[in-house]
Amino acid sequence: MLRIGIGTLFRFKAAGPKRLSHKMSAMAMNNKPFTVFVEGNIGSGKTTFLEHFRRFEDITLLTEPVEEWRNLKGWNLLDLMYKDTAKWAMTFQSYVSLTMLDMHRRPTPTPVKLMERSLYSARYCFVEHMMRSGTLHPAEFAVLDEWFRFIMNQIHIDADLIVYLKTTPAVVYERIKKRARSEEQCVPLSYIEELHKLHEDWLITRQHAECPAPVLVIDADLDLSQITEEYKKSEHQILRKAVDVVMRSPSKLSPKKPITTSPIQIVPQRRIL
């Protein structure tokens, strides 16, 4: 597979592509990487989006740790949670927080890191839904919320950009049925619709939660086999921002304030009906 360095995409930089790529790689060894969260509803194409960037040698990809959720010392917590949500939601979300925190803190040898979801979406979308639907007892929600607040206050979670794969609930519901993951067969459309609204409230309208970074919105309703062109459009946005941040702020240690500006929109030329 062809591996492309970030420097090759930015020949206008005075340092030249090879020197730029080497400089970024050296800086990444001593500094925190430019971190992108890839967010979206179930079935929105997050894993496919990350796979699109595998050809870049200067990017580390961290997919959602689903296999860990499926096998914790032999227990499939994901399956247990879907089959008896009221009983297993607290246990499942506690383990999600642990595994996502591990991903956030995992050493990255490259100047750019793309992560599938984050602690933020775990709290603001999934835990929030469980609280609003009554799945979590108020005491259970309070514990999860306190854990989240403690992590945010005590452990710096980097977020430089959020890519939001915006989808229509009915479209992703059909995708979920087609990919036929055993744990997801009992997921109703209403659940997908509620998660969609929570993602919109968090990333678009900013109604109830802090958004820790600028948001790049991609209309991901296109068929997954034809959405490559939309992903290509995002390459420049992601990689240009990464180069600018790494070159301009070598330490990247200054605290970040919540972003209140409007999301950036990427709208496809064609839509599959």
Automatic annotation (TrEMBL):
UniProt cross-references to CDD domains, sorted A to Z: dNK
GO CC, alphabetical: mitochondrion
Domain of life: Eukaryota
Domain called Deoxynucleoside kinase: residue spans: 37-237
GO MF term list: deoxynucleoside kinase activity
Identification of the protein by name: Deoxynucleoside kinase domain-containing protein
